[in-house]
Design brief:
RibonucZ/Hydroxyglut_hydro, Metallo-beta-lactamase, Chain A, 301 residues, Beta-lactamase, seven-stranded mixed beta sheet, 20% strand, 9 helices, six-stranded mixed beta sheet, globular, alpha/beta, 36% helix
């Protein structure tokens, strides 16, 4: 797929995946549009390329008055930065986000400051988020259900990536919207890589979140980065191995170098061999992931 394009998700009726073109990178950021009886947008992108998402929603056949739900999987701005813009455009849509993320979307000032500190020059690819009005947003938690009229999504807490992170399960369609709970799926190489950003990545909990998805036994896993993937026997095992190997790699490099900035510099340099994203995105992703593991290791020491 290319930035701004959308296509049906194979095997799931009325579900579409939209490529946001996040960070000027094809097949990195996904938004899912479910054309159910009460239509829903799952995740929103950063907000920077929102007009293309609006065009996709219109092309699918969902009118501005018809969208019922805006459902970020968590409050990180690559998944929820567009929520305020979508709330403005779709006046009847209610915003739901895991409970610990509500305050960040209602008043994004602190989240913006933290994101700018974490992503540094990559902030140019974000839109300044707009607050979601208090009367349009509410929290969801473990076991809650989102009514789409002809189906429903079940909320399952998955806080390993961040405390305000959940996955959403449609048991009838046998699909899980995993967001960042099972890592990043890279279609070009058909492989899963970890996502371990600061400051609250929790390694053990992340493995538990992958086991949660395994227990749901979906036919399709919809990754926030990037796209849907058939959930065969190897997919989630590969995700667990990727996390274990990455955390151990950072741990060993810290023991070897004894300086965290040297660890980040070394891993950033190694990321220059990545050829499936643009070099800037590959380096920024590696830097964030390394810093997240280092913060996790600090909490355990």
């Amino acid at each position: 797929m290319r930035a701004g394009e959308f296509e049906p998700v194979r095997g799931v009726e009325d579900l579409y995946v939209h490529d946001t073109g996040m960070f000027d990178t094809d097949e990195y950021g996904a938004v899912y549009v479910y054309d159910a009886e009460r239509p829903i947008v799952i995740d929103t992108g950063t907000g920077a390329n929102r007009e293309a998402l609006f065009e996709t929603v219109e092309a699918i056949g969902i009118g501005r008055e018809e969208l019922a739900w805006i459902l970020p999987t968590h409050a990180h701005l690559d998944h929820a930065g567009g929520a305020g813009y979508l709330a403005e455009r779709y006046p009847n849509a209610e915003v739901r986000v895991p409970e610990k993320g509500v305050r960040h979307l209602a008043d994004p000032e602190a989240l913006v400051a933290g994101t700018k500190s974490a992503v540094e020059e990559q902030w140019e690819y974000y839109a300044e988020p707009r607050p979601v009005p208090d009367d349009r947003i509410d929290g969801v938690s473990e076991g809650d259900r989102i009514d789409l009229g002809d189906r429903e999504l079940v909320v399952r807490d998955a806080p390993g990536h961040a405390p305000h992170h959940a996955v959403y399960h449609d048991p009838d369609a046998d699909v899980v919207f995993a967001a960042d709970a099972a890592g990043i799926y890279v279609p070009e190489i058909d492989a899963v890589t970890p996502t371990t950003p600061p400051p609250q990545f929790d390694f053990e909990q992340c493995l538990d979140d992958i086991r949660l998805i395994e227990g749901l036994d979906p036919y399709t896993v919809c990754f926030g980065h990037f796209g849907p993937r058939d959930c065969d026997a190897d997919l989630l095992g590969e995700a667990k191995r990727a996390y274990v190997e990455w955390v151990e790699r950072v741990r060993r490099k810290r023991a070897e170098l004894g300086d965290d900035e040297a660890v980040v510099d070394h891993l950033e340099a190694a990321s220059r061999d990545i050829d499936y994203w643009n070099p800037e995105r590959a380096e920024a992703n590696t830097s964030l992931n390394a810093r997240g593991v280092l913060a996790y290791l600090d909490r355990g020491e």
